[in-house]
Amino acid sequence: MVKPKVLIITGYGFNCEKETEFAFRLAGGEPEQVHLNDLLLGEKSMDEYHIMAFVGGFSFGDHISAGKVVANKFKYNLEKSLQKFISDGKLIIGICNGFQVMTKLGILPGLNGDYRNQKVTLTMNDSGHYEDRWVHLTVNKKSNCVFTRGIDMMYLPVRHGEGKFYTEDEDVILSLFRNNQVVLQFIDPRDGLPTSEYPYNPNGSIEAITGICDPTGRIFGLMPHPEAYWSPFNHPNWVRLKIDNKLPEEGQGIKIFRNAVNFVKETF
Asked: Which of 87, 123, 88, 83 is nearest to 103 (CA)?
């Protein structure tokens, strides 16, 4: 059985590489932090890995537009290697800033096999300021997203200034829902339904969308941070949960990484 090797891209303002590396290692993977320059200079190759992770942070200070500079570096220097990684059926996850990179790079949503042209974006929050809070999420059980198999609901933290999922093309939104590529939506915990109401939807995302996958389910981007809830003690109310004997054995986020690792073990 293959040991799933995970490429954790670092450098230029990404700052969640250690948490993401730890989560993948805890899930049974073999993660390695690789500076973006090492890929650009050819000192490291994507071919060496089964999973690639674009992590959270503020790459290039969110200048121009969050994730845009890194997206351009990939597009104009690593396009051939990236497209091969995708065509080989390997996994890619983008978390927060990583999701922003993936949308601007065009590898999400991947409609009609197009992994090169941008169709959606993540833009400034409707609140006009940085959002740092925990959110309730519903997971689309009909989606074939590899990363969310067996997960119905999630409670994860968000922390971003540009997290609003947006497109002016209504056909794109319709296609995402029709194809079950909408994986995660913000919900109101009072009724469990997707919502546009603040603060349950902290950024004003269209249709409360905060996570999508490509048609294959192997490429996944989300704004919430699963790597920040791998332990039950990451939960903001863990003390109360422990007192009430309701503290889970592990954090909800670790399931996303375990699903990816298990997929590689079963497939490659």
From this structure: 123
Tokens at 86, concatenated: 């995708």
Can you tell me the distance from the alpha carbon of 99 to that of 106, in angstroms, rounded to the nearest whole number? 11
| Predicted TM-score (pTM) of this structure | 0.97
Q: Which residue has the tokens 């990404």?
A: 14
Mutual angle of helices 97-105 and 68-77, in 10-degree steps: 50
- Phi, psi for residue 184 in degrees, rounded to 5: -125, 140
Separation between Cα atoms, residue 205 and residue 221, nearest integer Å: 14
Domains and CATH numbers, the chain: 5-267 (3.40.50.880)
Nearest of 130, 75, 142 to residue 103 by alpha carbon: 75
In angstroms, the first-to-last Cα distance of the chain is 8
- The answer to whether the CB of 120 falls within 8 A of the CB of 109 is yes
Beta strands in 207-267 (DSSP E): 209-213, 219-222
pLDDT band at 5 (very low <50, low <70, confident <90, very high): very high
pLDDT at position 13 is 95
Structure tokens at 231: 């332990």
Q: How many other C-beta atoms can be found within 10 angstroms of the C-beta atom of residue 100?
A: 30
Per-residue model confidence as pLDDT tens digits over 220-235: 999 999 999 999 999 9
Tell me the average pLDDT across 157-175: 98
Q: Catalytic site residues?
A: 96, 225, 227
Q: What percent of the chain has pLDDT over 70?
A: 100
Closest CA to 227 of 29, 62, 66: 29
209 — pLDDT class (breaks 50, 70, 90) = very high
